[in-house]
Specification:
Length: 293
């Protein structure tokens, strides 16, 4: 299959992908073990945007755009405490409770309204220890199907719900997301070196993969496009609580973007591109792009 170069360089294509694919998919954004107590929260990037997922007082999860209602700055920033009973924007001290309701806004004149402004909630789900976010642009865009169950995949480990997770590891690469997606299995094996030699990799949503190296370790891999030529790749490494730590699990914290770029550059020509693009064009018919090619 000959893929037009504009598919990787045209910002209008990314906008279409966001609208028709990325905003309409569930993304695995973390592990429930990072969100055990009320106030626990995690930051993630999905579909070019920043999100915050919080554990509410009654135990449910809530997800919001990480964007303050005042002037749009991030409410939570990398390095902030992983838990707090309030979401406090450091820029001008607007404060939100865990339901996203604005409870404090210095210098904001009273509006007389009985319903204070609220951060818009987005769909978030927890299954088998994994946390899924649907970054739908509108309610009508929320995927009808619930998040796929990993145990429906071949070779999914039986211990997934009780798994132990390493912190999500993310690196950013100067590459279009489709070039990474189209060769993900080869790329992971090359990147992880000997530790990844036995990986079996399955697609898991349009921008996700689920990989196992044995019955002791699993990887949930997710791509998050930042721009046409810049992509985050996140790895969530899981292991059985009863098995020793494997080399694959152990390798996560030392993985860096230069190694990934090198692994990508060293891949032999060819690969599994047709397989990826068959799925891609099934979700995004080529007629969507007619004005771009
Ligand atoms: S941008 Fe958050 S308080 Fe001003």
């Amino acid at each position: 299959m000959v893929i037009p170069e504009t598919l990787f360089t045209d910002r209008e294509v990314l906008i279409l992908e966001l609208r028709d694919l990325l905003f309409r998919s569930w993304a695995v954004v973390g592990h429930a073990s990072a969100l055990t107590s009320p106030g626990d929260r995690l930051l993630c990037d999905v579909a070019t945007r920043s999100w915050v997922v919080v554990r509410q007082a009654e135990g449910r999860l809530a997800a919001f755009r990480n964007r303050c209602l005042h002037a749009g700055y991030p409410i939570v920033e990398t390095g902030d405490a992983p838990s707090s009973t309030l979401l406090i924007c450091r820029h001008h001290d607007w404060r939100y409770d865990l339901s996203g309701r604005l409870i404090h806004a210095p210098h904001l004149p009273p509006t007389g309204s009985t319903s204070p402004p609220c951060l818009k909630p987005y769909a978030v789900e927890e299954r088998d220890g994994l946390v899924y976010l649907a970054p739908a642009a509108s309610e009508g865009d929320v995927p009808a199907a619930k998040p796929p169950r990993p145990d429906a995949l071949p070779e999914a480990p039986h211990w997934l719900a009780g798994s132990v997770a390493a912190p999500v590891h993310t690196v950013t690469l100067a590459e279009n997301w489709k070039r990474l997606a189209s060769r993900m299995a080869e790329l992971l094996r090359a990147w992880l070196g000997p530790a990844g030699g036995a990986l079996r990799v399955h697609p898991y949503g349009p921008l996700g993969w689920f990989a196992t190296d044995s019955q002791a370790t699993a990887l949930v891999v997710r791509l998050a496009p930042r721009d046409v030529g810049q992509t985050d790749i996140s790895l969530l490494a899981l292991r059985s609580p009863s098995e020793p730590v494997s080399a694959c699990f152990d390798a996560m914290p030392s993985l860096r973007a230069p190694q990934l770029a090198e692994a990508l550059g060293a891949l032999p020509p060819g690969g599994v591109e047709d397989d990826f693009y068959a799925r891609y064009f099934a979700l995004l018919p080529i007629s969507n792009f007619s004005s771009h090619f």
